[in-house]
C-alpha cells in the first residue's frame, strides 16, 4: 500500500502497535523515517501490572522498517531503562512538518535537543531557546502539532505557573510521563 501525498516522494508506510505502560502506542513510518506516534487517551492512571508493562510490539512486528525498529527500541528504553535513551539513536523523522523550515520545526528540534529527561521548561522558556521570546503561544501550537510525542518530549513543556498545561494524550498521561521521569531521575541520582 502506497500513500502518496502530492509533492512528497512516495512512501510505503508501515504501522506497528506497542503495548506500553500508558496503553497502546501506534507508530507509523517508512524506510526513510518515522511519521508519527499516536497516543491513546488515558482516562485513569495506570497502576500495578499495567504500569510495569514493558514496551513490547503487539502488532506489525514482521514488517518494521529500520526507523520503526529504532523507535521501538527507544520507547522500550524510555519506559524500562531510561538511562539508555541518551546513548540510543533517535530514529530519523519523515513527517512533512519536520521537513520544511518553520518556527514549529525549530521549536520541536530545540525541545528534542535541549530539554533533557526529567527536566521541564515553560512555553516562554522554550520560545526563548528557539529564538523568539515573544512566541510562547506559537510554542503551544507547535506542541499541539507535534507528530512524534514522547521522543520529541512535548510533555516536558509546562505553564510558567507550574501547572502542567494541556497534552495530546490527555493531562493524566502528561502527569504520568512527568512523574515517571522524575522518579527515574531520582533513582539514577
Automatic annotation (TrEMBL):
Residues 16-91 form the Methylguanine DNA methyltransferase ribonuclease-like domain. PANTHER family: METHYLATED-DNA--PROTEIN-CYSTEINE METHYLTRANSFERASE (PTHR46460). This is Methylated-DNA--protein-cysteine methyltransferase. GO terms for cellular component: nucleoplasm. It catalyses: a 4-O-methyl-thymidine in DNA + L-cysteinyl-[protein] = a thymidine in DNA + S-methyl-L-cysteinyl-[protein]; a 6-O-methyl-2'-deoxyguanosine in DNA + L-cysteinyl-[protein] = S-methyl-L-cysteinyl-[protein] + a 2'-deoxyguanosine in DNA. Its EC number is 2.1.1.63. It is found in: Nucleus. Its main location: nucleus. Residues 104-182 form the Methylated-DNA-[protein]-cysteine S-methyltransferase DNA binding domain. It comes from Ciconia maguari. GO terms for biological process: DNA repair; methylation. Its cofactor is Zn(2+). The lineage of its organism: Eukaryota, Metazoa, Chordata, Craniata, Vertebrata. It comes from the Eukaryota. It is an enzyme of class 2 (transferase). Keywords: DNA damage, DNA repair, DNA-binding, Metal-binding, Methyltransferase, Nucleus, Phosphoprotein, Transferase, Zinc. Involved in the cellular defense against the biological effects of O6-methylguanine (O6-MeG) and O4-methylthymine (O4-MeT) in DNA. Repairs the methylated nucleobase in DNA by stoichiometrically transferring the methyl group to a cysteine residue in the enzyme. This is a suicide reaction: the enzyme is irreversibly inactivated.
